[in-house]
Specification:
It comes from Hondaea fermentalgiana. The chain has about 290 residues and is mainly alpha-helical. The chain folds into 2 domains: about 160 residues, no CATH class; about 110 residues, Methane Monooxygenase Hydroxylase, Chain G, domain 1. The chain contains 14 helices and 2 strands. A two-stranded antiparallel ribbon has the order 1-2. The N terminus is likely disordered.
């Protein structure tokens, strides 16, 4: 589902995007924009940690879950184990994302801490009519002019007073080339946790469905469901969480040591990664750790 009808004229933002960047840089931008939403956010935060790092909690806790929800809703996916995080939204889905983001921040109780604290003002979405929002998406958000919105494009637009696509590429290419091995290992450990979570959630969904059956079959499924957190699948998940925690702690400790020795070294360009891994681990521990029983 992309933009329909005659192809719109290039805006000044689209022309500037092409004029400021050579073909290799444009290709790199598009490659980053085709990473999963979370990886796009990490790349953005690594590039702009000094300017935007204080907004990272909003990106992680509000914007990222909302773009995931918009994609899941559009795909008709209700269970997390069936969802594989994407990298872009079609035009109409991007409009839905903004609708839900505005609703979450300004209308729902869960948005009160964000809208009432001036600290988060740079992250709050602007109220717009549907017509104006469509125009903004076409002319300013969709900088690579492909009729879709990546999470990266949303972030560059939201924090446009401090960022630009050209500057983002320059900063990100350096950070990508210098990712410390301990960061790579921590990311891989968290991915193992993701796999374990999908297996756990798949079993939970299976047992939940079986528990609706009448008689002994349904009763047995209910008992299995009640003991799921003590099952072998849950134990594998706990082991994965423990290993991921150790890997993340090591990565953060080494990064802090490297930054203390050289404030402008490679580790300084990984602060977004450090934040995201710690926040992601904390969320997973809250939902699936032993204390979640």
């Amino acid at each position: 589902m992309s933009m329909r009808g005659a192809k719109p004229k290039e805006s000044a933002a689209h022309k500037a995007f092409k004029e400021d960047l050579d073909p290799a840089a444009i290709a790199y931008f598009n490659e980053v924009a085709q990473r999963p939403f979370a990886d796009q956010a990490v790349a953005f935060l690594n590039a702009y940690w000094e300017e935007i790092g204080d907004q990272a909690p909003f990106i992680f806790e509000v914007a990222w879950p909302t773009i995931r929800y918009a994609e899941m809703h559009t795909l008709g996916i209700n269970y997390i184990h069936l969802y594989e995080e994407g990298y872009e939204l079609d035009f109409n889905v991007a409009l839905y994302f903004y609708e839900k983001l505005v609703q979450k921040v300004f209308d729902l109780d869960e948005g009160r801490p964000w809208r009432s604290d001036p600290q988060w003002a740079p992250s709050l979405p602007e109220h717009m009519t549907a017509i104006v929002r469509k125009q903004e998406l076409r002319d300013k958000v969709d900088v690579n002019f492909d009729g879709k919105m990546s999470f990266l494009e949303y972030l560059l637009y939201q924090y446009r007073s401090l960022t630009s696509p050209a500057e983002f590429i320059t900063r990100t290419m350096a950070a990508d080339a210098n990712e410390p091995p301990q960061v790579t290992r921590a990311r891989e450990a968290l991915e193992v946790v993701n796999v374990a979570i999908r297996e756990f959630e798949a079993e939970k969904a299976r047992l939940t469905e079986l528990s609706k059956a009448p008689g002994v079959k349904g009763l047995g499924a209910k008992h299995q469901l009640a003991g799921l957190m003590s099952s072998p699948i849950a134990e594998e998940l706990q082991v994965a969480l423990i290993k991921a925690e150790a890997a993340v702690r090591l990565a953060v400790r080494q990064a802090k040591a490297e930054m203390a020795a050289d404030a402008n070294g490679a580790a300084a360009g990984q602060q977004g990664s450090m934040f995201w891994m710690q926040a992601d681990l904390k969320l997973k521990q809250k939902l699936y750790g032993t204390r979640a029983k």
